[in-house]
Amino acid sequence: MRWENLTEGSAGPAALFGADAVVTRTIDTPEFRGITFHEVRARSIVNRVPGASRMPFEWTVNPYRGCSHACVYCFARKTHSYLDLDTGIGFDSQIVVKTNAPDLLRRELGSPRWTGAHIAMGTNVDCYQRAEGRYRLMPGIIEALRDRANPFSILTKGTLILRDLPLLREAAEVTEVGISVSVGFTDTGLWRTVEPGTPSPAARLGAVRALTDAGIECGVLMAPVIPFLGDSPEQLRATVRAVAEAGATSVTPLVLHLRPGAREWFTAWLGTHHPHLVPRYERMYAGGSYAPTWYQRRITRQVHELAAEFGIGPSRRGEARKIAAPERPDGSAPAGATQLSLL
C-alpha cells in the first residue's frame, strides 16, 4: 500500500494525509467482521469535481474511501487503486476513514475563499455505509453545513440516515437540503447478489417514507437499471409503483455504467452468475462505459411514463433559506456571503 507516497514529506504525489497518517484497526464483531479500517487525518475534505465529469455539481465531501455495501457495479472501485488497494474485495473490506472530516469541513467552510457553493455527498461512496455507525462523522458534517447555511445534498443506500433526521430538519430551516435514496429495483433475488452489503430495497423505501413523513422531501435515484436483469417492463413497473407508494417526490432512472475498475469486477461476477449474458454485455458496452443512447432513452421514457401513471411529479425546487452572515471586526461581510442563498 502506498500510504508513504501520500503523506507529508513524501517525494510522490501531493499529500492527501498528515504525517501521522494511518492507524489500522480490525474489529471482531459480527457487523464488521472481515473489514479493516484505515483511520487517516485528511489534509482537505471539500473536493472539486473534475471538469470532464457528467455530475451536475462542482463540490463534494467524501468522509470514506471504499464501501462495505459491496455493490458489484460500483463506479468508485477504481479510486481504491490510487492507494494500491484492490478494487474488488479490497474495495469492499478495506475502508479508509477520514476521522477529522467534521473539523476539517468546518475550517474549510469558514475560509474567506469559500463561496458557499452546493456540496454533494454520497456521490463517490456511501457516507451512510456501516462504518458510519461506528465513526459517526456525518452528524458533525451536517452541523458544520447547518451552521454556515451551506446548501448540500446527500445520496445514500443507507437507512442510517434516519439517525440524523433531527439535524437534517434543522439544516433545512436555514438552507436547501436535497436528499435522494438509491433504489434501482425491488427484486430481492437480484439485490442479494449485486448489493449484498446494503439494506434491502424495502428498507430503503421505508427510509424514504420516514423522511417525507418528517417533512424532508426525498427523491429516488432509480440506479442502476441493470440491462437484462432489472429492466423488464414488469420490473420497472414494480419499482416505480413502490417508489410512489413510499411518497418520493421524484424518480430519476440511471442505466448501469461500467467504468474501468468496476467493469472488470462486474464482468467477473456476471461470468459466474449469468454467463449467458456476457456476450450481450460485451456488445452493449462495446462503445465504452455507458450503454447506447437509444437504450438509455428507452428506459428513461418508460420510467417517466410509469411515474406519471403513479402520480410522481418532478421534485419541487425549494427556495434556499439563509441566516445572517457574521460580520467581520471591521464591519464588512465575509467574502462570498451572498452566495449562501445559492440554488
Tell me what you see in this structure.
- With 343 residues, the chain is of the alpha/beta class.
- Helix content is 31%, strand content 17%.
- The protein has helices spanning 89-93, 101-109, 131-135, 138-147, 165-172, 188-194, 201-213, 233-245, 262-273, 278-284, 293-309, and strands at 17-26, 36-42, 46-48, 59-61, 64-65, 94-98, 119-121, 152-156, 177-182, 218-225, 251-255.
- A seven-stranded mixed beta sheet has the order 3-4-7-8-9-10-11. The chain has a four-stranded mixed beta sheet with strand order 1-2-6-5.
- Strand 8 (152-156), helix 5 and strand 9 form a beta-alpha-beta unit.
- Helix 4 runs parallel beside helix 5.
- The longest helix has 17 residues, at 293-309.
- The radius of gyration is 21 Å and the shape is globular.
- It starts with 16 loop residues before the first strand and ends in a 34-residue tail after the last helix.
- Residues 3-15 and 315-343 have low confidence and may be disordered.
